Every structure is written in structure tokens, then in C-alpha cells.
Amino acid sequence: MSVITVFNGLFSEAGPVVKRVLDATEHRLVTDQDIVADAAKLSGMAESAIARAFSSNSSVFNKFSHEKERAIAWLRLATAHKLENADNLLISGFVSQLADKNISHILRVCLISDMQGRLSVAEKEEGYAEKHAHRLIRKDDEDRAAWVKTVAGVEDPWAESLYDMVLPVAVTGVERSADLIVEQLDNKALTITDASRQAVRDFLLAATVETLLAAEGHNVSAQAHKGKVTLTINKHVLMLERLERELKEIVSGVDGVNEVATQVGKEFHQTDIYRKVDFALPSKVLLVDDEREFVQTLSERLLLRDMGSAVVYDGESALNLMEDDEPEVMILDLKMPGIDGIEVLRRVKHSRPEIEVIILTGHGSEKDREICMDLGAFAYLHKPVDIDVLSDTLKKANEKIRNG
């Protein structure tokens, strides 16, 4: 039986439509949460880190950690496994965009309504005031647009070119929308064939390759066709031939791969530089210090050592950033206006004890050192600090994190 994928706008009555389709068919529902859970099991990444890939707000550390790209690779692999193991699936949500377009037995559906219709549903079904509902819709649309741009390369998440059916639910109605989807399942174009089965196997192989490369620190897209894998490099790299050799060596050992080709993509000639992630080095370091020139210079010096960092200039900003992001190591000054370093350390270790905090201060006393270490600081260093000493301390903190 054919597969259905459903992508929808918030408050477009997708839930009732999907339920009616499921009731009328033998399809089994697969949600974003299902795929995220599978991807977390496959990758060892936290579910929260994988789910953040759906947000338009990328981590400030992502250009160093490639966490979003790695999450998408694992989401794609989890989706491929679902498609390999079952046909009668209804895949709903962000992950509906991940299935390879060459799989012809997938009916791709978009459920959307105009803004007034969505606001009406938000008020009737959820009791939301119009202003609040409008904010929720705008944010959700931003997330969906960013997601579709990332995984499909299309600016408009509702573009007809992405789907077999675009249904304006407010106009068509829930019942009729569901009926139209069910009717299309009889379309001969959705018949499962040897070619469409091969497309699923190709999708699975390409997804497997992408996750293997991601595990080695590479951010490269893959396509597969009957054992031939084509890798696309979309960031400029100075020694292209060496990178191509490394990628081919990694991929050639994958079961099912009999040929590997490489090419540069349309983004290759942009100014952004290809950066391989070295997981032995910290890539999510938060620097907290009110001495702006010092901390900016420190960030640049860490970057030269392939360590990724973000900078804030006071304790309150550090605590606010932690609410939306996940730094792994914090380098923290003690004497700052507003919330001082000791109080920041106390709150960090209370709410996020997994973050390793390195105190770096020019004014601390022996008593301060004792307090910080008792609160759970990883290390206590004095300014001016030798960059090699700080780098070594960061590596040790990162090793502790990686070893759990």
C-alpha cells in the first residue's frame, strides 16, 4: 500500500484530517516525535538536540558543531528505515519533507488554510486570543519555511511543486479533504513497483552514508543509485582533492556501495569555508566576560585552534542564552557588573550540572577559588592565562563530557 506524507500549517485542522484518513485506511501514523526518538537511538544524540533541527533559530555554536546538520542526517536515516520496513504509513509533520522525491509510491500532501481560517480554528479549538494565535502561527511558519529551505532547497514551504496535493482545508472542509486523500490512493501512479522499491533502497543507502560522514565530522550531502553514491561538497575547501580522497575512503567501505563520485554544489564558490568537526575538540564553548576586547581576542585565538565559541559580556546574558541553547563548556569571569560569576556558576550547576565551568579571573582570591570548586567548577585559572594551558583545560573538560 502507498505511503502518505502530510505537511501542514499550524491551525489548519491537520489533526482531524489525518484521523479521518487513518480511520478510512490501514495506514499507520508516524509523527515527528516517532522519528526523533528513532534518530536519537540510532545516533546517541539527545532527543532535544535532534528536535531543535526543526527550529528556525539555529544554535550560536552550530557553525562549529554542525549539530543541526548531523541531526537532519539522522532524521533522514530514521525516516528511510521506516520506509524500508513498511508501506502503509502516514508520515505527518516536519519529517514528511525528508522522503526522497524519487520514491514514486508516496502521496505527498500539504494541508493549509488562509490566515483568517487558521485564526478562527485557534480561537474555537484552543481558546487563543487573535494576537497570541497570530504570533504562534508566524513563528511556526518561520520554522517550517527554514526547514523546507534546508532540506528541500525551496523558499516557499507551501509551494505546489513540493506536493501532489495542496488542500485549503478551510475551504475544502475536513471531511472532503480526507476523502480526496483517500481517493488518490487508488491512483495507478502510486503503485509500488520494483523501481520505487529501488528508490527506497537508494534513499536508505544515501542516508546511511550521510550519517557515517557526519560521525566523522563531515557535512556533505549524498545521493545514491543502485550502489553508486555521489557526494556533493557545498562549502569551499582549499585542498579539494585531499577532501575528496578522504570522503571516498570513508564511503567506499559502506555495505552496498560499489562506486563513489564527488562533485561541488552550487554553494561551493561562496565565501563560507568547509569546516570538518573534530569531536576531540570542544565546539560549544561559551565565553562570559565583561572585558570585551579580551574576550573577543580569546574567542579568535580558540578558533585558530579549531575550538568553536560564542561570547556574552555579562552573567544575565549567559543565563538567558542557556535557556535556548546548549553550551557544553563555559569560561567564566568572576567580577562582572550585575550578576557576578559565582552566582552564575551556582545557577548553572543547579539547573544544568552537565555544563563544565572553567573560572578565568584576574581578581579572585583563595576563598573565591574554594567556593567555586565546591560549587562544581571544573577548573580555576588566573589571568593572564597561557593559551596552551587554557586549551589543554578545555580539551580535558570536553573529554569528561564525551566520556559521560
Provide structural commentary.
This protein has helices at 14-24, 32-43, 47-51, 62-65, 67-85, 115-126, 130-152, 169-172, 174-184, 194-215, 240-251, 292-304, 315-324, 341-351, 366-375, 387-402; strands at 3-8, 28-30, 89-92, 106-112, 165-168, 221-225, 228-233, 259-264, 285-288, 309-312, 329-332, 356-361, 379-382. The chain has 404 residues and is of the alpha/beta class. The protein folds into two domains: 3-190, Rossmann fold, CATH 3.40.50; 285-402, 3-Layer(aba) Sandwich (Rossmann fold). The strands form three sheets. The chain has a five-stranded parallel β-sheet. The chain has a five-stranded parallel β-sheet with strand order 10-9-11-12-13, sandwiched between helices. Helix 15 links the parallel strand 12 and strand 13 (379-382). Helix 1 (14-24) packs across helix 9 and helix 13 runs parallel beside helix 14 (341-351).
Characteristics of this structure?
5-stranded parallel beta sheet; Rossmann fold; 404 residues; 16 helices; 16% strand; alpha/beta; 48% helix; 2 domains
